[in-house]
Protein: Probable magnesium-protoporphyrin IX monomethyl ester [oxidative] cyclase
Organism: Apophlaea sinclairii
Amino acid sequence: MKSNIVNNNTKTETLLTPRFYTTNFEEMGQIDISHNTQEFEALLEEFRTDYNQQHFTRDKEFNSSKKLLSEPIKGLFVEFLERSCTAEFSGFLLYKELSRRLQKTNPILAECFLLMSRDEARHAGFLNKAMNDFNLSLDLGFLTKNRKYTFFSPKFIFYATYLSEKIGYWRYITIYRHLEKHPQYRIYPIFRFFENWCQDENRHSDFFAALLKSQPNLLNSWQSRLWCRFFLVSVFVTMYLNDCQRSYFYSAIGLDSRQYDMQIIRKTNESASRIFPIALNVDHPKFFKYLDLCASYSCLVSSIKTKKHHSIVQNIHKSSLYLRIFWLCLKLYMIQPINTGKTWNTIK
């Protein structure tokens, strides 16, 4: 049976949709890491070693497992594969282009980005092969040419990608450890690969942590404290809203989506506190209360979107829900953060 091709020409993008990014490549080329060369050379050696070169190999279990998934779970699982593949492919494109643009000005960074793009391409390819098991695939060539690209300045790329890679590590390793203890919930063999997968994510986050530390103005100034706070809130809210709409999928693998997200937020916040000058006060009594309210409003928005015909009243209701979510995000942002005491110097 011929596979259907999934592309984003027929998909509606939202604020929670995985995005493709571009940046100021000339500014990237001016990054000075000369005072921190040893750390980057050590990271580069890690990437060259390519620990996962032989780890992403499919076996016979893939052919049999797809038949065991019931229809509701199958649809949610395919959506999970599609979103993950899109996010990994987005990283591949950005890292590949950064590698090409930095070859002359900063060969160490260029090779680091090249090898990270290798990892992201491997992940995206593995996910796309899994989608083939369900007679679907992402048209990656179409995505490359037709997907809208969001511009982020280099410093925003550093903040957002560091957190994205770090939160990815905690998400993958938490699911892997859970399924190690409860193998009856491993509904598909791809979860067996999450341990090696998350190690790639961790090495990538180490690289972006080194980039941030090499540019102290991105961590030591009062402006940087505001931006760190902003990206922590943004990443946590985005994950929370995405997962609350897919709680049934997490139930299928034996997880409570809310408890899972709370654990991921705490772990990521703790990891970020080793780099960022501030951490969010996730123990504040209103922190998760605000997130829960955001999630409930987001689910109401989704229920309105599923209706075929939208009345003026429904559109007004949807707009009011968006405003409530925005207001709650602002209240989350205004919760007094925790000072980590971290400062970074250009000279060790």
